[in-house]
From TrEMBL:
It comes from Oleomonas cavernae. GO terms for molecular function: flavin adenine dinucleotide binding; N,N-dimethylaniline monooxygenase activity; NADP binding. Pfam families: FMO-like (PF00743). It comes from the Bacteria. Gene3D superfamilies: FAD/NAD(P)-binding domain (3.50.50.60). This is NAD(P)/FAD-dependent oxidoreductase. Keywords: FAD, Flavoprotein, Oxidoreductase.
Length: 684
């Protein structure tokens, strides 16, 4: 199957000069591979030196300027020929594709990554991480299996699309008035994605015409709206409706989901399964600071930006220096009389010169017109983020070089990043404040192009790193006794991230309350399934957040594939319910906890929202992306307690019309697949 881009190659290809100009913006390693497709000349893979990527490099794989020029010239010739009617050679064979992968990665990719990466590349067409499997049961059985999806952000949209494509009815319940989740809610100035946009997109809706490498919030919001519209999701969505409670009814083996619309009208939706897609980062967290309510000026949280408040000419305090404040502080600083940035810990900054840049027209052109260029460009981004700097944030138990690093490699990274900060700051007082004192990787590293420190260096900006003692009617008082009067306080203080599924009650088998079961320490099997909660699945659940590698969309795609696989298992197996085995769940969590304890964010000297009130890292995935991919490719029935329906479950029409009497007899006679463990469980 050909590259869809090629189908458009004859449209607007332009003259020689247009081609040559576009090639000036090429990502050369991707262009080399596109050239292999264009010419069939595999010798390019040895003629051109393998790229060598550097954390601080230009992304061109350290290829010498003359090599880059030669590749461009050859690509120009091949593209002009293509424009003039030359045929595109057939796709290279699999072993060549494999060599091409090694080339662009700059390493011999380990064998156990190959299928995972091939799927992402999807070079022969097809849908990467396709779930939407054929579910081979009668339409009437599917029709009866309704799913409630809670949340219409990135993950909920994805779940709806995949269920829809598998023919499973669903109701999408969304508290907001539109799709988009985080991109709907966060409208603060400067809000933009901090994963490369050509990667931060569904693998099956890979937008190649992002206006910026890291697009602004409005572009992302538009993307998710467009995808939802394309798939007709609105017809199945209840907007401005909140879920108050989901209760498992053992008799019917279905969930009763109590929802409330904006007029206060309550209703119970019955569902065979519930998918929580409520996200981790959407319940704004205000700090527990004495006197907070006494403040008489304006105040708001960054995720609920009050656009009605005029900031220009005002004295403003920002509390927090996390990813949100990092983006809005440089946007607002210039117009203020005075900005006080209250910092508890400084963020590490990852140099990203193109962070605010538009994608040049030439690059857009290449992505649009050059066969397979965009596939390889995305693959390159995916590979870079596959393990990211995972090795550099892993704790070496033998490390004795002090608490600001966790290994020799981490120390190397720390020194390089500290140097990057020092390069930008002359004032030693400010430098001491803005240089983090914890290991890189302890918290999320922020993409930086210099705007953050430039903002902090402004004459009207002051970084205050003293602890806040209290908030008064007129401002903020520090523990050292300094009082700062302000007109506005903006809380960039993050979210209730470790209070998973915080906004509604969930009662499972035997009336067990999910939040009681968690007791402030949320855990799940693969972030998806919890013992005592049959047919309840969570996307972006406990321990599925990432710090230095991957894109969260990748995780959601893996989780949704797994969940739709669960629906398939239930329906095709004739089961009414599946519940993760406690031993599987516990063993998984033991493994994850041990791995998290070995990462910089799990180090005892690091405190962050990745750790819950009990000190356990409940947010993060500590292993490689390929591990999550492998674990979630399809559910293993042996990981679950699977129960057959009671007689009342078999719908008449299935028994009589679709299955026939023989089928129905088989259905009824099938012994329930119940593990001894389930029977002997001490769970209530
Ligand atoms: P955050 O990372 O949790 O940052 C909260 C900030 O508030 C931290 O600097 C924290 O200090 C500080 N803070 C909290 N309580 C405080 C208190 N009592 N006194 C003083 N300071 C206090 O929240 P966020 O910036 O909203 O970002 C949350 C996550 O959202 C990010 O990590 C990222 O995953 C995501 N996000 C992504 C993007 C993007 O993709 N573009 C943008 C924004 C957010 P400590 O560090 O000392 O705890």
């Amino acid at each position: 199957m050909g590259d869809p881009a090629f189908k458009r190659a004859d449209q607007g290809f332009g003259d020689d000069r247009a081609i040559e100009q576009a090639l000036e913006s090429a990502h050369i390693p991707s262009l080399v591979l596109a050239l292999v497709h264009l010419t069939g000349d595999v010798s390019l893979l040895t003629q051109v030196p393998r790229p060598v990527y550097d954390f601080f490099g230009d992304g061109q794989g350290s290829l010498a300027p003359d090599v880059q020029a030669t590749v461009r010239a050859r690509a120009a010739t091949a593209l002009k020929a293509l424009r003039d009617g030359a045929p595109l050679p057939p796709l290279p064979p699999a072993d060549t594709i494999r060599r091409m992968m090694d080339f662009i990665a700059g390493v011999d990719i380990p064998e156990h990554y190959v299928s995972f990466l091939m799927e992402e590349l999807a070079i022969g067409g097809g849908k990467p991480r396709a779930s939407a499997p054929e579910i081979n049961v009668p339409a009437s059985a599917k029709a009866r299996f309704r799913v409630v999806i809670i949340g219409a952000g990135m993950s909920g949209i994805l779940a709806a699309i995949e269920l829809q494509q598998s023919g499973i009815p669903y109701v999408l319940v969304e508290k907001n008035a539109d799709f988009g989740g985080t991109w709907f809610e966060n409208s603060y100035p400067g809000c933009r994605v901090d994963t490369q946009n050509h990667l931060y997109s569904y693998s099956f809706e890979n937008n190649h015409d992002w206006p910026q490498f890291y697009s602004r919030r409005g572009v992302l919001y538009g993307y998710f709206q467009r995808i939802a519209a394309k798939h007709g999701l609105a017809a199945h969505t209840r907007f401005e409706t909140t879920v108050d409670e989901a209760v498992w009814d053992e008799a019917s083996r279905r969930w009763q989901v109590r929802v409330r619309d904006k007029s206060g009208h309550a209703e119970v939706i019955e569902a065979s399964a519930v998918i929580s897609a409520v996200g981790q980062l959407n319940q704004p967290k205000f700090p527990d600071i004495e006197g907070r309510d006494s403040f008489q000026g304006e105040s708001f949280h960054s995720a609920r930006w009050n656009h009605g408040v005029t900031l220009e000419g005002k004295r403003v305090a920002v509390i927090g220096t996390g990813a949100s404040a990092f983006q809005f502080v440089p946007e607002i600083a210039a117009g203020l009389e005075k900005l006080f940035v209250f910092q508890r810990s400084a963020p590490w900054l990852g140099p990203t010169p193109e962070y605010h840049e538009d994608v040049p027209a030439g690059k857009q052109w290449l992505l649009e017109h050059v066969p397979y260029y965009r596939s390889w460009y995305r693959f390159y981004l995916f590979w870079l983020m596959t393990d990211g700097v995972l090795d550099a944030v892993r704790i070496d138990p033998a490390w004795d070089g002090g608490p600001q690093a966790v290994s020799a490699l981490n120390e190397e990274l720390r020194l390089a990043l500290a140097g990057y900060i020092a390069m930008q700051i002359e004032d030693p007082g400010l430098l001491a404040k803005v240089t983090p004192d914890y290991p890189p990787g302890g918290k999320r590293m922020l993409r930086d192009n210099g705007t953050w420190l430039n903002a902090l260096k402004r004459d009207n900006v002051e970084v205050i790193d003293e602890r806040i003692a209290r908030i008064t009617p007129t401002g903020i008082v520090t523990a050292a006794g300094r009082a700062v009067d302000v007109d506005v306080i903006i809380y960039g203080t993050g979210f209730h991230a470790s209070d998973f599924l915080r906004t509604f009650k969930v009662k499972g088998r035997g009336g067990v309350d999910l939040h009681d079961q968690w007791n402030g320490d949320a855990r799940a099997y693969l972030g998806i399934a919890m013992p005592n909660f049959p047919n309840l699945f969570s996307i972006y659940g406990p321990n599925t957040n990432i710090v230095v590698n991957g894109s969260i969309i990748f995780f959601s795609e893996c989780a949704v594939r797994y969940i739709v696989g669960c629906v398939k298992l239930l329906l095709e197996g004739g089961y009414a319910a599946m519940e993760v085995r406690p031993d599987m769940h516990d063993a998984f969590n033991t493994r994850i906890d041990a791995a998290n304890a070995g990462m910089a964010w799990g180090a005892p000297q690091v405190s962050s929202w990745y750790k819950n009130a009990k000190g356990r890292v409940s947010q993060n995935w500590p292993l490689a992306l390929v591990d999550y991919w492998n674990m979630t490719r399809r559910p293993d029935p042996d990981d679950f307690v699977l129960t057959t329906p009671g007689p009342q479950w078999i719908p008449d029409q299935v028994r009589d019309d679709d299955m026939g009497e023989a089928g129905a007899r088989f259905y009824r006679a099938r012994p329930p697949r119940i593990f001894a463990l389930f029977m002997s469980s001490s769970r209530t």
